[in-house]
Amino acid sequence: MPGNRLNFCLLVAALAAAAAYSFWYAFRSWAKNRAIENTPISRVRSAAQGYVELSGHGILPPDSHNNAPLSGMPCAWWRYTVQERRRTGRSRDWSTINSGTSTAPFLLDDGTGRCLIDPRGAEVFPGATDVWYGDEEWPGGRIPSRKGIFGWQVNVLGKGDYRYTEHRLELNEHVCALGAFRSLGGASVEDPEAAIADLLHQWKQDQAALLARFDTNHDGTLSLAEWDRARAAARKQVLDARAREVRPPSMNVLSDPGDGRAFLLAAADGATLARRLRRRASASLAAFLGSTAALTWMLTHV
User: Fold this and answer.
1) Which has fewest Cβ within 10 Å: 34, 50, 280, 288?
2) Do the strands 153-157 and 128-134 form a parallel or antiparallel pair, or are they unpaired?
3) Is residue 30 part of a domain?
4) Of the candidates 113, 117, 116, the residue with the CA atom closest to the CA atom of residue 46
5) What's the structural domain count of the chain?
């Protein structure tokens, strides 16, 4: 019958999509696991520019504040969703009506130095998750204090037509970070030779002053030796000016590599995060095999 044929085609398409997505998710999770295992932990003080793994404690920059929107709790990073229970006939499901993710930077301190973490674009594995319910679109801030299992602080409280979920990286919590490391500011990167050439060019614009200063035999031209003295004077002036510059201290930043490599932040050490990603890859691979087996059985028993 046409209806049965349509249902069969829809089920085949759903199984094929599930198999494809499970395989992709398993591959991505395994790739992230390998990135963690193949990237040694670096110290902030001695980290090389490029792709690194850092491990330390998350703190806020001086004179800054970052409070989670639903609970009002201070933290280094947050993500939240507000969902409403919708009823359609006999079925009930949850629909997201509000959500947000922290974009404010925080600091990672590993004892040797501090690195500013720009969390935009990161996949974050938070250490604290609270879930509670209420009768209003925005909660009153009351959350439970019951410790969850498996190292996750997952708290669930109450009933109501609105569900509030909040994830946080707590202040002073241990954080593993994998991303692109770079240093900003600090010593000037200006080429001193280019600055010397520019200064000599400026001196050439006033030939009378240039000759009065360096034409020691007063023949109206600069010999090679006299020009060498002019270059030496220009070099000394440039280097002395650079030494007197007041430069801002360098700032270390970890951010999204932007080239497809993983950008991960986790309230765990690297080994724990790698195990979690391996378990995720294994579960996704099992889902792929199950979907593929079901799809094969359906296509061979039509």
Assistant:
1) 50
2) parallel
3) no
4) 113
5) 1
